[in-house]
Amino acid sequence: MKKLTILSLLATLALANYIQYKPSEEFAKYFTTQSCSQVLDKFYYLNCYDYGYKGTKAVAYRLEADNLKGKQIKKRPRFEDDTNIPKKYRTTWSDYKNSGYDRGHTLSNASMRKTTQAQRSTFLMSNITPQNPQINQRVWNKIEKRERQLALKLGSLEVLNLINYDNNPQRIKNNIAIPSSYIKILKGDNFKECYQVPNHEVEDESIKSYKVNCGKF
């Protein structure tokens, strides 16, 4: 009994820096049974998962400045299958091997490194899509840094990532669809900024080139 009490206390402390994410009305419309095969509530974020694509269509979360300050976990955990999804629609780490695509985080590991539980939640395969290496490691990575900078500046920032697919998308192993582009919407008090990035090699790696009018979303 004592051991269970200690474990419960540790779990509570691990969550203490985070409040369960509840989407704003503007973002909530992307997480319905009409939009998603399954809405995954991961406490730190919501994920609109699609069985046909075997991947996410939308991920939303809130970044608080306090969770981006101070000590951050450096070591990356292993990727994990999402057992909340029926087995036939899940993806695995090995599906990406020799595919030519990175295991691209939709919600960045670096945005959730205050606690072990928060960081591990980003390594669920349901949060991963096949992402062009250049986009993942450079362009999208710069936009992810931008979201953290804004959260630190504004104190709090709500983020919506939308993943687009062609009507007949190309696929990697296990029938995982390859996204055609990624959208990131950054929303704070009296502030909004949006980006759309293709999922293929590009000549221009400046994120200014991928900034778009938020009115189109």
Distance between the termini: 51 Å
Structural class: alpha+beta
Give the overall shape: globular
Strand percentage lies at: 25-35%
Share of residues in helices: 10-25%
**In terms of per-residue confidence, which ranges show pLDDT below 50 for 5 or more consecutive residues?**
none
* Largest sheet, spatial ordering of strands: 1-2-3-6-9-10-11
Order of helices and strands: HHEEEHEHEHEEEEEE
Averaging pLDDT over every residue, what do you get?
A: 94
Note the total helix count: 5
The major β-sheet equals: 7 strands, antiparallel
Outline the structure in words.
The protein has 217 residues and is an alpha+beta fold. It is 23% helix and 27% strand. It is built from five helices and eleven strands; from the N terminus they run H-H-E-E-E-H-E-H-E-H-E-E-E-E-E-E. The strands form three sheets. A seven-stranded antiparallel beta sheet has the order 1-2-3-6-9-10-11. Strand 7 and strand 8 form a beta hairpin. It is globular and about 40 Å long. The N and C termini lie far apart (51 Å). The model has no long low-confidence stretch (mean pLDDT 94). It comes from Campylobacter molothri.
Short account of what is shown:
The chain is an alpha+beta fold and 217 residues long. Helices cover 23% and strands 27% of the residues. It is globular, with a radius of gyration of 17 Å.
